[in-house]
TrEMBL record:
SUPFAM superfamilies: Alpha-L RNA-binding motif, Pseudouridine synthase. The lineage of its organism: Bacteria, Pseudomonadati, Pseudomonadota, Betaproteobacteria, Burkholderiales. Belongs to the pseudouridine synthase RluA family. GO terms for biological process: enzyme-directed rRNA pseudouridine synthesis. The keyword Calcium does not apply. It is an enzyme of class 5 (isomerase). This is Pseudouridine synthase. Its EC number is 5.4.99.-. Keywords: Isomerase, RNA-binding, rRNA processing. Signal peptide: none annotated. Residues 18-77 form the RNA-binding S4 domain.
Length: 315
């Protein structure tokens, strides 16, 4: 965040449905709650150029106008120091680029790197890119990956590209696939499994976001394919294809179906993870097929899975 200039933020599909005040409090860690409410009620916060109410629900594609805000936390990404610049350059230098042109930047995000700052994280991937590449006048996340999920992440370098890609996500016009390692044994044959559990987002007492299966939740659809037994002999490797893009969708769907992902500190089983010595969340976005938002060319992007996702006898 910058404390000296107005910012425009485009809401991603993963962020939609939140109340405006809740979104801003998470976005502006360190900003007093009273200040958040004051700037909303005074009309300084705008959604699509219109005044907004505290209880307004944000929708994917909405553009928020946020006035200059001074963040209280000394760890805020607003404070650009020499250390921040050095850290940003280090992140970007070690970030594999899978595809780039005037409209898109697609990278292979490592596990452990948050896509944006907040909640005690001074620099996320998006802030690091903006700092290290000041020549980019526009750079926004098209979608998100959880901090501990690795793999393909898309960013837009033009607002027109961002708008079209968000529309494609809403209409299901992207093929996004993940590879995972889950606790087994897998007992449902070798075919595909359609998981359609409705998902509901909620907050813990400390403000941390969680998701659970609820009858009144949002419609959600994940297709699971068994790929083979994992090399540890106690778990299995599978592919997950997203048909919808809800928060923590793959993790919660698999956990609810009886196959928690290895290394999942939110929805997994710690005792089982210790047995197989899981060192990270074993979820990796490895394949993406999209239509380029401007050229209309078909793009087939892949990011090889890191070590640990191998199938027994098929390395």
């Amino acid at each position: 965040m910058s404390e000296n200039s107005v910012q425009f933020i485009t809401i991603t599909p993963e962020e939609e449905g939140q109340r405006l005040d809740n979104f801003l409090m998470k976005w502006g860690k360190g900003v007093p709650k009273s200040h958040i409410y004051r700037i909303i009620r005074s009309g300084e916060i705008r959604i699509n150029k219109k005044r907004a109410d505290v209880t307004s629900r944000i929708v994917a594609g909405d553009v928020l106008r946020i006035p200059p805000i001074r963040v209280a936390s000394p760890e805020s990404p607003a404070v650009l120091s020499a250390v921040s610049l050095q850290n940003a350059e280090k992140i970007v230098q070690n970030l594999p680029i899978l595809y780039e042109d005037d409209a898109l930047l697609i990278v292979n995000k490592p596990s452990g790197l948050a896509v944006h700052g907040g909640s005690g994280i001074s620099l996320g991937l998006i802030e690091a890119l903006r700092i290290a590449k000041p020549q980019l006048r526009f750079l926004e996340l098209v979608h998100r990956l959880d901090r501990d999920t690795s793999g393909i992440l898309m960013l837009a370098k033009k607002r027109s590209a961002l708008t079209i890609l968000h529309e494609d996500i809403r209409n299901g016009n992207m093929d996004k696939r993940y590879i995972f390692v889950a606790h087994g044994p897998f007992t449902e044959g070798l075919g595909h499994i359609a998981l359609k559990y409705p998902l509901h987002k909620y907050l813990l007492a400390n403000g941390e976001r969680r998701v659970r299966v609820e009858d009144f939740g949002q419609e959600s659809h994940t297709v699971i394919k068994f790929l083979g037994q994992a090399q540890d002999g106690k778990s299995f490797v599978g592919e997950a294809q997203l048909r919808t893009g809800r928060t923590h969708q793959i993790r919660v769907h698999l956990q609810h179906h009886g196959y928690p992902i290895l290394g999942d500190d939110k929805y997994g089983v710690l005792e089982m993870d210790k047995l197989v010595k899981a060192k990270r969340l074993m979820l990796h976005a490895y394949k993406l097929v999209i239509t380029h938002p401007l050229s209309k060319e078909k793009l087939n992007i892949s990011a090889p899975a890191p070590k640990g996702f191998e199938i027994q006898n098929k390395i």
